[in-house]
Amino acid sequence: MFRLLLTLLVLFMTGIFLVSSFANGLPGTTACIKQMAIFSTISLFIAFIGMRMPEGAFKRLPLFYIPAVWLALLLLFLLGKEVNGAVSWFRFMGLSIQPSEFAKPAFILLLAYAFTMQLPKGKIVAHLRPYAILLLGGIFICPIVLQPDLGTACVFAITLLIVFASCIRFTYPMAGILIAMLGGAITVIHRFPHAMRRLAMYQDALLLRPDIKTAFHNYKLQESIIKGGWFGSGFWPCTGSVNPPLSYSDSFFAATVELLGVIGSIPFIFIYLAWFLHCAALAHRTTSMANRVIYLAAGSMVTTQAFIHIGVNLGLLPITGLSMPLLGTGGSAFIAFTIIITMVERLSMLEDEKRLDETDFSPSPSLENA
Q1: Considering the entire predicted model, what is its pTM?
Q2: 118-142 pLDDT tens trace
Q3: How many angstroms separate the CA atoms of 116 and 260, rounded?
Q4: Are 20 and 247 in contact (CB under 8 A)?
Q5: Which of 93, 153, 288, 368 has the CA that lies 20 to 30 A from 35?
Q6: Secondary structure, 3-state, 128-155
Q7: Closest CA to 255 of 217, 299, 289, 285
C-alpha cells in the first residue's frame, strides 16, 4: 500500500513542480496549482481506501458503477456544458466534472465482466461472443464519440483492441473492426465542426503554413520542443518561455521538453512504458480471466493516453485535448487514473496473499511421503 501511495505522491508532486515552473507568472497559475494540490490529496485518500477494499467489492462495484457512469454520459447531452465545441463537462458550484474520465475505470470493469460472463454452451454462441463484446464496448463508447471527444474515444477503442487481441484466440474479426472504426471516425469528423477544426490545424502544421491561424497551437508545441533542445532551457525564472497553449494539460510534454530537454524528458516515456509492462506481467501471471482483462485494459488505457499526448506534442498526431496521466492538470482525470492504478495494485496484492496462503498450508514433501 505504502509503495503505491509513495509512487502517486511523487508523480503528483512532480506534476505540480513542473506546472509551477513553466507556468510561472502566467495568469491563473496559483489557481491551477491549488486545484492540482486539492485533487492530488483527494486521489491519495481514494488510493488509501481502495487498497483496503475486500475482494468481494470488486464483484459488486460494477453492478452500480458502470450503469451510473453511462447514465452520466447520456445526461451530458441534456445538462452538460459546451466548451470549445464539445459537451463533455458538468458545471456545478464552480466545479467541472468530466464523466468520460470516470468512464475509464468503468470501461475496464465492463470488459472484465464481458469476457467472464457465463453464456449458454454451443458453437454458435462461442463464435458470436467476440462480436457481442465488441458491440457492448462500442455502445459504451458511443456517447463519448458524440460529445465529440475523439481523443478519449481513441483511448477506449485502442484499449478494447489490445484486450480483444490478447484474450480472443482467433483474430479474423479484427479487419472488420478496423474498417468500422475508420468509417466511424470519418463520419464523426465530417459531422462535427469541432473535429474538422482540429484536423485542419494538424493539416496546416504538416503543410508548414505559418500564416494560418488554425495551426497556432501546433507551432507553439514545435517551438517549445525546439527551444528545449537536448538539455532544456532551465527553470525559474522562465524568461522568454514559449508558453504553448494549455501547458498545464494539453501541452504538458512539450513544455516539459522546453524545461528539461529531450534527455530530461525521456524518463517520462519510460514511466508509462514500465506501467504497461508491469500490467502485462501481472496478466501473464494471473489465473483469473477477469483479473487478466483488468490488468491488460488498465495498462493499455494509461499508456495509450500518455503516448497519444506525447504524439500530439511532437506533432505526430492531431490535437486531441488529452492530458498527461497523473501529471497534467484535470481533477476528474486525477481521480479516474488513481482508481485504475489502485484497482490493479489491490487485485495484485490479493492474488499474492492467496499464493502465500496456498504455500503456507501446502503439505511438505516429507509429510506426503510418510
Answers
A1: 0.85
A2: 766 666 666 677 777 878 888 888 8
A3: 45
A4: no
A5: 153
A6: HHHHHHHHHHHHHHHHHHCCCCHHHHHH
A7: 217
